[in-house]
Input
Amino acid sequence: MSHIKKCGLIGLFAAASVAFGASAGSAADLGGACCADLEERIAELESSVASKGNRKVSLVISGWVTEQVVSWDDGVESNTYVTGLGTAFASNVNFKGQAQVTKDVSVGYVLHVEIITSDVYTTNASNPRGGAALSGGGPNSLQVLYSYWFAQSETYGRVSVGVNSPADDSAVVALDSSGTLQAAYWVAYDVFGFNVRGNFAPGDSLIWGNASSCRGYGGGPGDCNGVPLNVIRYDSPVIANFSASASWGADDNWAVALRYINTKFGDMTVKALATYSETSDEAQGAPVGGNLEYTQASVYLQHNPSGWFAHGAWGHIDQNVNPQNNPASDTYYIKSGIRLKPLPIGATIPYGEYLKAKDSAFIVNDSGTPGDSSDDVARVVSGSEATFWGFGVAQEIDAAAMTVWLRYREHEVDVPGVQTRDMSTIVFGGFINF
Output
């Protein structure tokens, strides 16, 4: 983000005049008619860049644009869609303002607006253009992902208030610095809203986003407390490579997280975290009169000289009031690959991934009032298992701050007494920052 100032332009103009042999008389004419032309040009340039409504607060505008081509086969039907990457990875514009109050304290704001061309979380076999998952808007709509203000001290940490990530939202995802994050992580992204094909009992249905379920608490299979909420959040300063976060808000959602990040652990980058959260909000899937409880742990390792990396994660979800006698569910994820430099444009990153979830399938029965989902009954099936595996390659283009990728993923779920079909996807996508 460059800052255009009048004095800088006048200096540049004068320097250019000297460089091209302008006479002293011509340079002196800067105070005459040509100066008016210069002022007019400056005004044009200033109108073409973002200006600050409050000159005491800095403004940084950033974001990215990302789209992909998804070819899918659910065992009964196949097709190819062009979609965005969905909520939290969608194309966006991010506004961040900050002002220095004292040498140690600053205050500011973040406003992150997503442009949902087609959300993969609401796309399915009968709907090639899914609407915004958070706002409920249709395709080609806007939704606010973050909107909060903050006060930050280098000594004491940062407090933020507003629509923000709970302390454990995307905590596992944020550890991944391999360059393959857009291509692969532990959520059922491209197939989330698709029905699992199988001979289910009348009224029963299962979507791939619930094959390993967060029970309504988030993205699934992993990152269960994975939706920005109205919260108060505290982030500690980093002390000896450790930092902590805590949040509370929404309808009694609270979360804590502890992180360790060391990019110079000998030849290694070592990152680790542990998180815990609870919600009593029925809109997030909590049982009436009870809580959903979610625990995560994750480790990311990278050998810096060679570029080899591995990322492992575990998630455990349970509930303390359990009218359906749902078993606790565990999800395990591993991804590994290597950052290579066969091309001068940037790193080439082949990888493989594997996910396994146990006691995981969250089946919905809608045999109640037709057209009314309020009396639907959902249950976690004991003995069910989900397996996702895949491989791909990401290519970084350093000069454009861009990544493109090609990947394959296979999705399998076993439900006792049900014959299910696997689902596969082949995806080519691109992601460019600005």
The chain has two domains: 1-49, 57-433. Residues 33-47 form the longest helix (15 residues).
